[in-house]
Design a protein that fits this description.
Blueprint lengths: L24 H19 L8 H12 L5 H4 L2 H9 L5 E4 L2 E3 L12 H8 L5 E5 L3 E5 L10 H21 L4 E5 L8 H7 L1 H4 L3 E6 L5 E8 L2 E4 L2 E5 L11 E6 L6 H7 L7 E5 L7 E8 L3 E12 L12 E2 L13 H11 L2
Parallel strand pairs: 4-5, 5-10, 10-11, 11-14
Antiparallel strand pairs: 1-2, 1-13, 3-4, 6-7, 6-13, 7-8, 8-9, 12-13
Helix pairs in contact: 1-2, 2-4, 6-7
Length: about 350
């Protein structure tokens, strides 16, 4: 199977069933899980650590208790749990199935919890009159086509581009504290002006050997030199501007990829708390009955091929958020101090 290693953005494979054969519920369950196990055995990142004979036998035994295909999808939680596939999911009719990663709220400030409850959206605004502030939350959708990624990314890019033309900025703050994941391509295309025409991240295999690179070039998002989506850029790049990236305990998955894209960028600093630690790269694969498997196939790396289990900031700030008054937020204060230094 040919894979494009982009987090949650790959052309899926499709499997066609014989429509002339009338299938029972158990037939449907068997067809689906047979295909699922084949894909896990062949492409799952940690496949060599799994006793597939035992896992397969236990799974097939457990499947006998389900009366219909939909209810059988609950078994994916058990299966993924056994093989440590905590970043994998199966989607059926837009509903996810698989393991649920429970994040502790003990390390989150009351201000973070209050703001997160409001479901904050993408935002661009001015701080202190001369600093651009970008809030990049989770950006989640299931249509990974190039056209839809462009449709999502372009309006966010336009907000940043319009802001840069109307404001003279000394630097930028990128706030990823609410970025719990989603589609990294849309996020990074939106941030094209800040990242410029460069390699921005990649993936490494289980031996930490680099096996793919992602690059931005003239508004195009290139994975191993192949275009997967784009934005229409305008104006001058900001790739030499000072940027402070703020992370938190629930900056995860694509949020971590977005932070990784700024590792190795000149005039850049990371501030806040270590990220969640979901730094595996996923692909989407079509399975029977219009299901989609989100499968971990590699580890995320920065532009230089370095892997991080957690992204640790350069300056640590813990539980000193203030979203009611950003200028009183310790993370923002550190970011402003960095930007102000000559």
């Amino acid at each position: 199977m040919k894979k494009i290693l982009v987090l949650l953005c790959i052309c899926g494979l499709s499997f066609h069933l014989n429509a002339q054969k009338v299938m029972t519920s158990q037939d449907s369950i068997k067809v689906f899980y047979d295909k699922l196990l084949i894909m896990l055995k062949s492409d799952y990142l940690l496949r060599k650590d799994v006793d597939w004979k035992t896992v397969g036998a236990e799974t097939n035994q457990n499947l006998t208790k389900y009366s219909d295909f939909k209810s059988s999808l609950k078994e994916t939680e058990v299966l993924f749990g056994k093989i440590g596939a905590t970043h994998c999911k199966v989607f059926y009719k837009n509903k996810p199935y698989g393991t649920t990663v429970k994040a502790s709220t003990d390390n989150l400030s009351s201000q973070w919890k209050e703001k997160f409850a409001t479901k904050p959206g993408f935002e661009v605004k001015s701080l202190s009159g001369n600093i651009g502030y970008i809030l990049m939350p989770n950006i989640t959708f299931l249509d990974f086509s190039p056209e839809n990624v462009h449709k999502i990314a372009q309006p966010m890019y336009d907000q940043i581009a319009d802001f840069k033309t109307k404001n003279k900025t000394e630097g930028w703050i990128l706030d990823l504290r609410f970025n719990t994941g989603g589609n990294s391509a849309a996020m990074l295309l939106a941030l094209y002006d800040l990242l410029g025409d460069n390699d921005i991240w990649g993936t490494v295999d289980r031996n930490k050997k680099q096996n793919s690179k992602v690059k931005l070039e003239k508004g195009n998002y290139l994975s191993n030199s192949k275009k997967s989506s784009y934005i229409n850029p305008k104006g001058e790049l900001l790739d030499k501007a000072k940027v402070a990236v703020i992370t938190g305990p629930l900056t995860a998955s694509s949020g971590e990829v977005t932070a990784l894209a700024f590792k190795g960028r000149p005039n850049t600093i990371l501030i806040g708390e270590p990220t969640f630690g979901m730094t595996t790269s996923n692909v989407d694969i079509g399975l029977p009955f219009d299901t989609v498997l989100i499968l971990s196939v590699a580890y995320d790396s920065d532009r230089n091929g370095n892997y991080y289990e957690h992204i640790v900031p350069d300056i640590t700030v813990s539980k000193q958020d203030n979203f009611n008054d950003l200028l009183a937020d310790k993370n923002i204060q550190e970011a402003i101090g960095f930007i102000a230094k000559k």
